[in-house]
């Protein structure tokens, strides 16, 4: 299992625009081989931004990497971070990838 996360520093005042971009986008992840789960997370507010994270679970790192090289990935990210000409972000997203070593489930 592989977890892919992107952290976004969203400029104060741009939270609603950022959330609407994500919540109203066409999602095609369900058809991507190896995809398991997606979460959009809202974190703490700081002096100049609110921290958000996208959190995706894949069956393997290879499946995630295959998706990042696909036309579907390029299409999904072609307008990332832009509303008109104004950027929603303070800097680029910060990617973090993790291979799962242990899982503890409720069941």
Notable characteristics:
38% strand, two-stranded antiparallel ribbon, alpha+beta, ABM_dom, four-stranded antiparallel sheet, 3 helices, monooxygenase activity, monooxygenase, Antibiotic biosynthesis monooxygenase, 107 residues, Dimeric_a/b-barrel, single chain, Alpha-Beta Plaits
Explained architecture:
It is globular, with a radius of gyration of 15 Å. The chain has one domain: Alpha-Beta Plaits (2-Layer Sandwich). A hairpin with a 2-residue loop joins strand 4 and strand 5. It has 107 residues and is of the alpha+beta class. The mean pLDDT is 88. The strands form two sheets. Strands 2-3-1-6 form a four-stranded antiparallel sheet. The two termini are 18 Å apart.
Q: Whole-number average pLDDT?
A: 88
Low-pLDDT segments: none
Helicity range: 10-25%
Number of helices: 3
Top-tier CATH class = Alpha Beta
Shape: globular
Please state how the strands of the largest beta sheet are arranged side by side: 2-3-1-6
Beta-strand segment tally: 6
For the termini, the CA-CA separation is 18 Å
Most strands sheet: 4 strands, antiparallel
Secondary-structure element series: EHEEHHEEE
Oligomer: single chain
Number of self-contained structural domains: 1
Determine the structural class based on helices, strands and strand pairing.
alpha+beta
InterPro entries: ABM_dom (IPR007138), Dimeric_a/b-barrel (IPR011008), Heme-degrading_MO (IPR050404)
Domain ABM: 2-98
Protein name: Antibiotic biosynthesis monooxygenase
Keywords: Monooxygenase, Oxidoreductase
